[in-house]
Amino acid sequence: MYQTGLVSISFRKHSVEEIIQEVRRCGLTQIEWGSDVHVPAGDLARARYVRELMDKNGLTTSSYGSYYRLGTGDDFVPYIESALALGAPIIRIWGGTRGSDQLSIQDLKNLAMEGRTLAEMAAEHGLTVALECHANTLTDHFQVALDFLQMVDHPAMKMYWQPNQYRSYEYNLTAAQELSPYVTHIHVFSWEVHDGQVIRYPLVHHKDRWKQYLSLLPGDHALLLEFMHDDRIESLEETAEMLNDWI
Question: 27-50: per-residue pLDDT in tens?
Fold first, then answer.
């Protein structure tokens, strides 16, 4: 059964304590903590403090939302250490710094070699690594993401899924179906692009679409709300209520 939660970067200006309080009050059960503001990589004291607060409030850390990018030469060890201290079973990473149409086969193979190394490192500690579906990375087209996963060929390398606002509804249906066997968590929002601008809508705007997406993504996934349409923490309650009602 799906679990529902929040991506902490939705409210970068709010404290860990405020976010935990609101998540609990709104009937969500999980939080993905970001490495950019709330739980910086390598700050183990901070990670342990957040874990203690989560435990006290009966919440679960779904994942560690890192900003590790393949192909940049970053050190992955601090991310592993922080995930362990935080109690996060999954480390989210980004698929490089270039879009899929800018990658040669050799580029993809090189990234896959690194990806396998990360998966092996994570697996040694009982962790999973998961790519985020994101623009201007190798996951901006589901077929390239599938090619990458098959090249890595390791059970500790998985995927997040989210609708791609730059592509059609039909594309997103196909992407959800094709990536489903690899999906661990799902980022939930209702965005569209008009005249090159990303427009954020209340979650209800894509209610019918999300029902179709979720029908193609069965499993014990965390559905994580990512960004409110108006960036206000006060909007979390209504949005969380709708998400919980869907499932």
Answer: 999 999 999 999 999 999 999 999
Question: Which tokens is 83 given?
Answer: 């995930």
Burial class (CB within 10 angstroms; exposed 0-12, middle 13-18, buried 19+) of 189:
buried
Give per-residue burial for 145-176: e unless 16+ CB within 10 Å, then b: bbbbbebbebebbbbbbbbbbebeeeebbebb
- pTM assigned to the model: 0.96
Q: Within 13-152, where are the H helices?
A: 16-25, 44-56, 77-86, 105-123, 142-152
Quick one: CA dihedral 61, 62, 64, 67, positive or negative?
negative
β-pairing, 157-161 vs 197-201, is unpaired
In sequence order, what are the residues at sequence separation of 6 or more whose Cβ sits closer than 8 angstroms to the Cβ of residue 181? none
What are the pLDDT digits (tens) for 139-165? 999 999 999 999 999 999 999 999 999
Tell me, what DSSP letter sits at residue 193? E
How many Å apart are CA 208 and CA 97, to the nearest integer? 33
- Report yes or no: 200 and 190 within 8 Å, Cβ to Cβ: yes
Q: Which domains does the chain have, with CATH numbers?
A: 3-246 (3.20.20.150)
